[in-house]
Design goal:
Layout: E1 7-10, H1 16-27, E2 31-36, H2 39-48, E3 52-55, H3 61-70, E4 76-79, H4 100-125, E5 130-136, H5 149-171, E6 175-183, H6 192-195, H7 201-208, H8 220-231, E7 242-245
Pfam families: adh_short_C2
Protein name: Short-chain dehydrogenase
Organism: Asaia siamensis
Length: about 260
Amino acid sequence: MRLSDKTAVITGAARGIGLAIARHFRDEGCNVILTDIDAENGQREAEALSCRFLSLDVRSEKDWEALASFCPSPDIVVNNAGITGFENGVVAHDPEHATLTDWHAVHRTNLDGTFLGCRYALRGMGRRGTGSIINISSRSGLVGIPGAAAYASSKAAIRNHTKSVALYAAQKGWAIRCNSIHPAAILTPMWEAMLGDGPDREARMKALVADTPLKRFGTVDEVAAICVMLASDEVTYITGSEFSIDGGLLAGSAAVPG
């Protein structure tokens, strides 16, 4: 029970990585508050986990203020909520053709939402001077993605803001840590539209991870396991750090010299 007697707030927890984090935290004895803009699924999943749920649009300061009234001093905050920009279909997200509206939409959720989440965490955790903030960035925040420029830019900004928050907390003399996690291809519901359920599903999956040294998708449980570690009191000397979970993708070339 590595997280017993702690309270955690997780954004974007109605499904995927956020839901897996909530489940792992609960299993470690944590009091978990699931939040999401999807109130129907969020409430259902919270009830299944015997946890609490609060509707939260991470772009809304009023929603964060309501959360602060509901949970004024969390021990752990996981800023997981995010979008790719392709939720409503294929649109141009390359640097030449992306519209300013589409660019802003991705940054409002991913970057502004993380900023507001970190601000909420610092104000609440600062009352006692301890806590753990975990920001879910992406492999795309470490490399360029020509066809998803807004997503890559927002995730890169999350990586940098994480370090600013970590340094700010340290300068205040707080034992509040802030770290970022950078998943690559993690099998979540967002991939389903691309993979489909036809006979070629396995072939599609193999093609999408062909460049990954481990030749497979990561799992939401593998991301959640890192979150448990960072949320626990076992790694209190880690702050401002980034953790890649990408099957070795960024390690370099897996090619064998001839």
